Amino acid sequence: MLTKEDIAKRIAKEVKDGYYVNLGIGIPTLVANFVRNDISVEFQSENGVLGMGPFPFEGEEDADIINAGKQTITTLPGASFFDSAFSFGMIRSKKVDLTILGAMEVSENGDIANWKIPGKMVKGMGGAMDLVASAENIIVAMMHVNRAGESKLLKKCSLPLTGVGCVKKIVTELAVIEVTPKGFKLLERAPGVSIEDIQKATEGTLIIEGTIPEMILN
Known about the structure:
Layout: H1 4-12, E1 20-23, E2 42-45, E3 49-52, E4 75-81, H2 84-92, E5 98-101, E6 105-107, E7 112-113, H3 128-134, E8 138-141, E9 153-154, E10 169-171, E11 175-180, E12 183-189, H4 195-200, E13 206-207
Parallel strand pairs: 1-2, 1-5, 5-8, 6-9, 8-10, 12-13
Antiparallel strand pairs: 2-3, 3-4, 6-7, 10-11, 11-12
């Protein structure tokens, strides 16, 4: 199974030259560490940063430069800082080409739940609802199962929804999956992981067509 860093590496392959990309909290923040050096990408954080770079090395952190998850970050030459109103103006006017989010659950029709577990304290929904309502290309970075071993790729989400029918692709520790009108379509499997393992971990409809290749991370 893949580590969180491996999931970020695989998602980094989806980032194209010239893209403006919003990185959500959690695994998505790692993607900036693995984007190819020969392409130009602008990473945006909803708290008001455009031009994020990789995470800083230990000892080089600046406590005043953080992402939406309160983690210290680096910025690239030409980076800019602005208020939340300007940031969400960028998001709502569809200036962001790709949004990468974490999730607690995703349904087979592309619904996403990523902000609230009933009965547990949360800081709030953040900007996820604006992001999923505005972005045309959404990739979810998540673990395939929860700590109890139960699937998080479901026929129908059980948690409060963040967005409806909006997720395009999912990368987990087991697989790369595309969301289609007929359900989850298996595109790639993690090295050493069998199709049967993925089937057992997926509650929703899983479409398997032809030979399923292993992910290439390098």
